[in-house]
Amino acid sequence: MTGIADPRVRGGHSQAGPAPFTTLVELTWHEKRIEHWIRFGREVHEQILDRRRRVVGFAPNSLFAFIRWASNDYGTIISRIDIVRAIDRGEPYQTLPFVRPGGDIFLKIEGWPKVERVLRIIDAIEALGIDPADVSPDHWRHVHNRLAAGHEPRAYTAQHHGAFLLRRRTAP
Q1: Average confidence score pLDDT of the chain
Q2: Half-sphere exposure of 11 toward its Cβ, with a 13 Å CA cutoff?
Q3: CA 54/CA 116 separation, integer angstroms
Q4: 39-66, pLDDT tens digit by residue?
Q5: Which residues, 6+ apart, have CB-to-CB distance to 36 below 8 Å?
Q6: What pLDDT digit, counting tens, does each position of 148-163 carry?
Q7: Is the pLDDT of residue 12 over 70?
């Protein structure tokens, strides 16, 4: 081996660390036991630790969905989805397992039926041709609040998205 191959090919360890203020998420995939994965988001850093574990990073102010599922011999013990905004230097944040240092949590749902509902909402947004990482944070808060109250959230539409983009462009 000459050492000129991509770091992921040489064993998964990146020589260069993540950029400053990158939010790091530890992912694990042990089939049918522990499954942590990213549903959407733009990764700016990846470090492969071994066959089952890796660390991914997200730039400040980017959104991502982090899903955690685990089971034991008796069935599922955790099903959870969090939609999080990566924080920037000096911003307050909420802690979240496997996320360093933490983030601004827009949606936090537990229990497989509700997690599955959020996954369908994400699929519907993608069907509109919109990247879920670009969706209004207010919509994710709305989905969280409505599902927590046992109600159906409003659908995200292209008109909502257009209004959000205009509002974001004109904000100071």
Answers
A1: 90
A2: 5
A3: 24
A4: 999 999 999 999 999 999 999 999 999 9
A5: 26, 27, 28, 29, 66, 67, 68, 69, 98
A6: 999 999 999 999 999 9
A7: no
| Contact indicator for 130, 162 with CB cutoff of 8 Å | no
- Number of Cβ within 10 Å of residue 29's Cβ equals 13
**Beta-strand runs (E) in the chain:** 23-30, 34-41, 43-48, 53-58, 63-72, 75-86, 94-96, 99-110
Amino acid at 47: Q
Q: How far apart are CA 46 and CA 24, in angstroms?
A: 9
Tokens of 108: 């936090």
**Token digits of residue 58:** 């997200």
CA distance 143 to 140: 5
The two three-digit tokens of residue 17, written as one number: 């660390």
pLDDT tens-digit readout, 124-133? 999 999 999 9
pTM as predicted: 0.86
